[in-house]
Amino acid sequence: MHSRRRTLLTAVLVMAVAAVVVGGVLVVADRNKTPVAQDDRGPVLVVPGYGGRMESLSLVISALKADGRDVVEVAPKAQGTGDMRGQAANLGRVARKTLRRTHAPSLDVVGYSEGGIVARLWVKKYGGDRIARRVLTIGSPHHGTELAARAQVEHPDRCPKACQQLAPDSDLMKDLNEGDETPSGPRFITVSSTTDAAVTPIGTAELTGALNLTVQELCPDALTQHTQLTSDPVVLALITSALGSGPPAKPTGVTCA
Predict the structure, then answer these.
(1) pLDDT tens digits, residue range 183-209?
(2) CA angle 97, 100, 104 (to 5 degrees)
(3) DSSP the chain
(4) N or C: which end of the chain has fewer CB within 10 A?
(5) In this structure, are residues 193 and 219 in contact, taking their beta carbons and an 8 Å threshold?
(6) Cβ-Cβ contacts under 8 Å for 111 (sequence gap 6 or more)
(7) Buried b vs exposed e over 218-227: b needs ≥16 C-beta within 10 Å?
(8) Across-strand partners of 135?
(9) Which residues share a beta bridge with 192?
(10) Into which CATH architecture does domain 39-243 fall?
(11) Residues 133, 67: contact at Cβ < 8 Å?
């Protein structure tokens, strides 16, 4: 009798372990069942930074259109100062609408400053990993910026929700950067400037697992500030080298300003 019980118990344990293993495999298989094709260029969503000024991205948008891309401008709620989780959910709605309109299998996202954080939130929390092909962030403080932390302390009445979330120790930043910073699905590209006084420390703009590039790698004498990034020749050259049909790469033949 005791032998039968031990045999039964062993069988149950084996089946339980097998179920866990199979379950794990099923989750992985489901996640990778339809990987995002990297050679099919779809539409591009452009997400502005804090303040929501789409005009600041006019040259980026022009470069994308000149490259033959279908460009969708994603106007943020509350001028980009509201909860970034809500902004990420809105980005998801625009993405789904865009895919229905274009019948494309995937799309790219270009996010400037806070817009890059919103894009990452969408990928990690709102299903963007299944439909985003490339995510290019321009001067985005992926691990928070000291500027927001100071504003929260020195001028709390002028630091709304998004400003608070951009502080390095915010709950949003901790949650966003827990685990894999570049989850499977899209390929990530970051570009920043070592002279950007708004995104500090400068390493905050980089992501583990991404193609990380600074303006100064190609133009050593550049003094590009945060508001100048979207017109910088290195950033504009990335439109084709990072968002083309081939693997993301550093641009070549850049004429430094």
Answers:
(1) 999 999 999 999 999 999 989 999 999
(2) 115
(3) -HHHHHHHHHHHHHHHHHHHHHHHHHHHHHHTSSPPPSS----EEEE--TT--GGGGHHHHHHHHHTT--EEE-PPGGGGTS-HHHHHHHHHHHHHHHHHHH--S-EEEEEETHHHHHHHHHHHHSSGGGTEEEEEEES--TT--HHHHHHHHH-GGG--HHHHHTSTT-HHHHHHTSS-SS-SSSEEEEEE-TT-SSS-SGGGG--TTSEEEEHHHH-TT----GGGGGG-HHHHHHHHHHHSSS------S----
(4) N
(5) no
(6) 46, 47, 49, 117, 118, 119, 120, 135, 136, 137, 138, 140
(7) bbeebebebe
(8) 109, 188
(9) 214
(10) 3-Layer(aba) Sandwich (3.40)
(11) no
Dig out the tokens for 68 from the structure: 């033959």
Residue 197 identity (one-letter amino acid): A
Phi-psi region of 112 (alpha: psi -120 to 50; beta: other; left: phi over 0): beta
Give the tens place of pLDDT for each residue, 209-254: 999 999 999 999 999 999 999 999 999 999 999 999 999 999 999 9
> Which residue in this structure is represented by tokens 């895919």?
99
Sorted by sequence, the CB contacts under 8 Å of residue 187 that are 6+ apart come out as 38, 133, 134, 135, 210, 211, 247, 248
